[in-house]
Amino acid sequence: MTVPDSFTRREFIKVISAGSAGLILGVYCSPGKEQHENGESDPFAPNAFLSIDRQGNITITVARSEMGQGVRTSLSMIVAEELDADWTKVRVEQAPAHPDKYGGQNTGGSSSVRNSYMMLRKAGAAARAMLIAAAAQRWGVAPESCTTQNAAVYHTSTGKTLAYNELLEEASRVAVPSDPPLKDPNDFRIIGKRTPRVDTIEKVNGKALFGIDMKFPGMLFAAIARPPKFGAKVVKFDASKAKAGEGVRQVVQIEDGVAVIAESTWAAFKGRDALQIMWDDGPYARQSSDAIWKSFEDAAMKEGSVDRNDGDAKAAFGKAAKKIEAVYRAPFVAHVTMEPMNCVAHVQADRCEIWAPSQTPQDALGEVSSLLGLPNDKILLHVTLMGGGFGRRLETDYVIEAVKVSRVIGAPVKVVWSREDDMRHDFYRPATYNVIKAGLDNKGMPQAWMHRIVGASAHGLVVGGSRPPYDIPNVFIDSHTLETGVPIGAWRSVGYSQNAFIVESFMDELAHATGKDPVEYRRTLLTKSSRLRGVLDLAAQKAGWGKKLPAGHGLGVAIVQGFGTSVAQIAEVSVDRTSGQARVHRVVCALDCGPVINPDTIEAQVESAIVFGLSAALKDEITIENGGVVQGSFDTYDVLRINEMPAVEVHIVPSTDSMGGIGEPGVPPIAPAVCNAIFAATGKRIRRLPVRAEDLKTG
Amino acid sequence: MASFTIKVNGTRHTVTVNPDTPLLWVLRDTLGLTGTKFGCGRAFCGVCTVHISGEATRSCVTSIESVDGKTITTIEGLSSDLSHPLQQAWIHEDVPQCGYCQSGQIMTAAALLAQKPKPSDDDIDAALAGNICRCGTYNRIRRAIHRAANEVQSIQKGGRR
After folding, report:
1. pLDDT beyond 60 at B10
2. A431 to each of A145, A179, A624, how far by Cα in Å?
């Protein structure tokens, strides 16, 4: 399907006639504003296309990237619902990158569904209204007397029926309604129903194509030697051994490293291993984790930039009946998508085509355009399925370097990263060092909250999600962000992921310090947040909070409000005090994300978030030595495995309140819920992640 | 370079590659069977799992030289029509999220079921602890394996769903 270039964006919906391709009723829509976390909006909202062909197949183009969160299914369900489509005949296509045609394509911030919901409903509803008008006209009846169901229009009093695909020509001549009537949510047949994903079958028969699976005639394979220390540069290199390898075609330097071009991935990997490269030291040659923590600790002595200042926390702390202070540390962590970074690029003199597993295709498109000096319309960037994203693929580095390699060699090339490349050249969640204090009144309730955060480089990623969601009159949060040389990026749930650990663990400390029940203590401080209170109560009830547990077991609770969603998790943990191993038996999660599109996706995303957060809480830490990352693969950076997986229960609060996101908000509560459960089981407070066996062993 | 003959999903292929080339890259780059994935290259993560003479094997550390003449099954050959009980169970439980690790999970589970038609949770843990899923589909994987095992048993007993 092609869309005329002359398309005017002000038009809400537009008919597209595809002529020889078969008659297609296309709906194009653009109104509505996409709102970001900071309250700012994109100039205009995402678009979707839907088309119906003569056979009655409905194609919905999805502009957000599918990385396992089920977005191809949920976005399509919204359009199909208002269209009254036959869901079994819906096909989904992935939109390529376009600077503006689809609106924002950035797939992050747990925003895909909530930012497209109304727009996609209107798109489906407009098409449905046009099909009704066409049928009514043919029958000579009033449109209001017609109904739709399962891709057909019905006239109830006469019993007449026309399938959508019998109405395409007439429907395409109907004026596009600017404000089509939307369904009453009580009449939804698809939205809110447990719906299997549209791409499950191809994911169980091996046919699903990820970025790494792309292959084209004449395509070569590349592996790149990247700097062993942050910011190091190539001084010189000897490629003679690499070039002698069978299947190696060429060795070229791109500014960030040395690329071995070969006839297969294996030949490229072997060739890369055979390179002899002299690197300079770069600006961070002696950087280490110890040095970073020391610099954070030093910085924490001084006041930083003020991020929040409610009331007068210093004065309130000064006169508090009880003062509690603690230091918390969160480490650098990596994303470790199962599909390592990769990209296929084909640069030609006047055009460029790219296949990228990207969460941010528009940013990549813009950067490629600048790099090559080509206008956007000469670059076709296909978005492939991706084997996990978690924020890593919001970066464009792996796309840009593939383009650079293809430009140098003048051929299509697939750059594949090894696991070690992927782990050592990530954009990590920033490590942070936190000094946190609370001043309690004589009833044990917090009157002052002071949190100083020192973290690596990116301010927003360090401070985000640090504000406690409780009724505390005086709050002071300040921060330092220090350049450590370690690349920093968005890691599923960003600032919340480490700050929830700190805030919710410390809240637990306050509750225990005053002899109060951790659920009741939190509850008392949530008078202004009924949604958080609701999920807290539900989780406590479902988890059997307060009931007797097996000996050595403990329950821990944590709550988070982020990405528009309220989440409470309660973890049941036991600790083997001989080995120091913590075992998470069960996690009960209650959440309120407003209206639900696909309950199965909500559950899957929460299960996913819990595993992701649990890996980091129990196992994961990136450490720095000699200016580079120590860990390289799963032997030194293990992640949660099936034998360590707790039972997970997800309870969704029925809600017609504002819609929240779901990809991320399940991550932050798990670390503090587990650490609070460890405290309940052992009396041992965990103030640095990951949880270490040596912190839990007795004797 | 040297020539090796392997039987993959019922078809004989003769490939001319370096003897040390891992089977994984022969499958993916030479034969175009990309359902078998690359995850770590060191047998830590399991996404490259295939069956060699019926045994679940990490193809990323298995040289083509070592499997010359052998019979290999990949996810593409597990069934031609999604009829394998595990594929059916995977669909029923809607297991995959990103889907990248699922070929390896299914191939490992298939080898487990071939040996233990009615695996316990501990059997599943032992067999699949080497298969990482970063999306966290573990509980659904477990349910799907039990479902497939029950399905096979009920078919064998002549029962119906």
Report:
1. yes
2. 63, 49, 11
- Confidence bin at A35 (pLDDT 50/70/90): very low
- pLDDT for A4 equals 30
Helix (H, G, I), strand (E, B) or coil at B156: helix
Which of A72, A203, A583 would you mutate first to test chain B, the one with the most B CBs within 10 A?
A203
- Give CA separation, A58 vs A207, A258, A486, A665, A685, in Å: 22, 47, 47, 33, 56
In A237-310, which residue ranges form alpha helices assigned H by DSSP? Answer: 240-244, 265-273, 289-299
Give the CATH number of domain B2-78.
3.10.20.30
**pLDDT of the residue at A5:** 29
**Contact assignment for A204 to B82 by CB distance below 8 Å:** yes
Taking CA atoms, what residue in A is nearest to B50? A206
Q: Which residues of A touch B106 (CB under 8 A)?
A: 204
pLDDT at A698: 87
Q: Where are the domains of chain B?
A: 2-78, 85-156
Closest partner residue to A387 among B44, B100, B130, by Cβ? B100
CA dist., res. A181 & res. A197, Å (int): 28
Report pLDDT for A268.
98
From the list A204, A266, A386, which residue is nearest B91 (CB)? A204
Closest chain A residue to B77, measured at CA: A205
CATH superfamily of B85-156: [2Fe-2S]-binding domain (1.10.150.120)
For chain A, percent of residues with pLDDT exceeding 90: 84
Rounded Cα distance between A575 and A691, Å, is 11
Which one of A199, A208, A612 has the shortest CB-CB distance to B136? A612
pLDDT of A247 over the 90 cut: yes
CB-based contact A642 B74, cutoff 8 Å? no
- Nearest-neighbour CA in chain B from A635: distance (Å): 7
Q: How many CB pairs under 8 A join A and B?
A: 191
pLDDT class of A459 with cuts at 50, 70, 90: confident
Torsion of CA A687, A690, A692, A695, to 10 degrees: 0
For chain A, list the domains and their CATH numbers. Answer: 19-199 (3.30.365.10), 211-282+341-416 (3.30.365.10), 289-332+428-696 (3.30.365.10)
Closest among A501, A485, A490, A505 to A459, alpha carbons compared: A490
Q: What mean pLDDT do residues B102-131 have? A: 98
Q: Does A218 touch chain B (CB under 8 A)?
A: no
Which member of B21, B30, B87 has the closest CB to residue A205?
A: B87
What digits encode the pLDDT tens for the residues A199-239?
999 999 999 999 999 999 999 999 999 999 999 999 999 99
* Interchain CB contact of B159 with A (< 8 Å): no
CA distance A600 to chain B (A): 9
Distance from C-alpha of A472 to C-alpha of A468, rounded to nearest angstrom: 8
